[in-house]
Design goal:
The chain starts with a helix and ends with a helix. The protein folds into 2 domains: about 1-125, no CATH class; about 145-195. About 40% of the residues lie in helices and about 25% in strands. Strands 1-2-5 form a 3-stranded antiparallel β-sheet, covered by helices on one side. The protein contains 6 helices and 11 strands. The chain has about 200 residues and is of the alpha+beta class. Helix 2 crosses helix 3 (about 70-90).
Length: about 200
């Protein structure tokens, strides 16, 4: 049951578990801290709220399709899963939800969620040495290299192309070489098949 629930969570970025709470994936963009010159990577963080809403119809439809059962059975299995999860948390110090984190019960009766932090492990922050990087932080400009082709019958006198246009032009000029090579290979294969069969 849990793999299907986790799959839904990753696809829809939201999961409501009755009696426990609501999990939401929030994506943050990469940030640059100018004080210590550190680039923090983009992170998909999981937030947890104990105020639960009922699971929607699309969730149960997804479960029934993924588990190959009807929706009534999917609803029953999901509520059984939620009940077992609550009992498991009550009997232990916490339950690991693989790929998400650890769910614990607080002394007050509510739930506390501690997210697995993959971002620090697999996407560490990048430290930039701004002083020795060789560029001015206030004014960063980008440059694009251009090429001027010599005059011939097929080009204008002052034709200027960017890198991408030059590569596209050279690829268009030599397409026929690849066509000839493929034709020769094809003819050789046919000839080999005809003569080896006799």
């Amino acid at each position: 049951m849990y793999p299907s629930i986790y799959k839904y969570f990753l696809l829809h970025k939201k999961l409501n578990i009755p009696g426990i709470g609501c999990f939401v994936i929030k994506n943050t963009t990469a940030t640059f801290n100018e004080n210590n010159s550190v680039i923090q990577p983009p992170i998909a963080a999981i937030s947890f709220n104990t105020e639960t809403a009922l699971a929607d119809k699309s969730f149960f439809k997804f479960l029934s399709n993924d588990l190959h059962i009807n929706e009534v059975d999917a609803i029953k299995h999901f509520h059984d899963f939620a009940y077992q999860l609550q009992n498991g948390i009550a009997r232990t110090e916490g339950i690991i939800l693989p790929g998400m984190g650890i769910l614990k019960k607080q002394p007050t009766g509510g739930y506390f969620f501690e997210e697995e932090n993959y971002a620090k492990k697999y996407s560490p922050a990048i430290v930039i040495d701004v002083k020795n990087a060789g560029f001015n932080k206030e004014k960063i400009t980008s440059h694009q290299t251009t090429y001027t082709l010599p005059d011939n019958e097929n080009s204008l006198q002052d034709e200027t192309l960017t890198n991408e246009a030059l590569e596209e032009k050279s690829a268009k000029d030599y397409w026929w070489i690849f066509a000839i090579v493929l034709a020769v290979v094809g003819i050789a294969a046919i000839a080999y098949k005809l003569y080896s069969g006799n």
